[in-house]
Design goal:
mainly alpha, three-stranded parallel β-sheet, globular
């Protein structure tokens, strides 16, 4: 559960370089990596001069101020355990960098349950969400299954847009704080209140979609 913390960290980093932003606007961009987020607030010249410095400051602020406050959404390990019990492989496709993703896996207590993972700095990911690169990279790791046998789970419109662009169906969860209407308009086929709600409905969802 990191959206608010990432938003505050980005806003701090932007303001340090005299780039004005509204916290609510920054929050709506979370789910994108720096390559897609910064153009929403900074000019081309500012990006050219400061993009690496802004990203570095954002990471520093997040690590020093907010990381210790990060907690997993309730029920995450239970969902992963259920998926594994059903013999379904799990691939994480995160806008975080690889080292950050390792931290999040540990915080969520799912490191031992993940089969594959991609991140914003993976070699096969040239552009972050809402481009489909990260999901296409995940499909490659999964040995390119038929896309009608894959379900994405996400909590931002950028997850949904990237999934649709990769010709994947996505279940949206509201615990990230994005309105249901926005998630549906962005491409989510199903909406669940939170991870626990998704877990309760998991077998129904997979029976409907995966025919298992």
């Amino acid at each position: 559960d990191t959206v608010d913390y990432h938003a505050k960290s980005w806003q701090d980093a932007l303001e340090y370089y005299n780039i004005k932003s509204n916290l609510a606007d920054v929050r709506m961009q979370i789910g994108k990596a720096a390559d897609q987020l910064l153009p929403m607030f900074a000019t081309e010249e500012q990006i050219r001069k400061y993009s690496k410095d802004i990203s570095a400051r954002k990471a520093k602020v997040f690590e020093e101020t907010y990381l210790e406050k990060v907690k997993p959404f309730p029920g995450v390990r239970e969902l992963f355990e259920l998926i594994k019990k059903r013999n379904i492989p799990i691939a994480l496709a995160s806008s975080a960098k690889t080292d950050e993703l390792e931290l999040y896996k540990n915080i969520a207590n799912v490191s031992d349950l993940v089969d594959f993972q991609t991140s914003s700095n993976s070699k096969d990911v040239k552009r972050s969400k809402p481009y489909p690169d990260i999901f296409l990279a995940a499909l490659k790791l999964l040995k390119n299954p038929s896309t009608d046998r894959v379900i994405v789970v996400g909590d931002t419109p950028w997850d949904a847009q990237a999934a649709v662009a990769a010709k994947l169906r996505i279940a949206g969860v509201l615990c990230g704080g994005v309105d249901e209407k926005i998630l549906r308009e962005s491409g989510c086929s199903w909406i669940y209140k939170d991870i626990i709600d998704l877990t309760k409905n998991y077998d129904k969802l997979t029976k409907e979609v995966l025919k298992i």
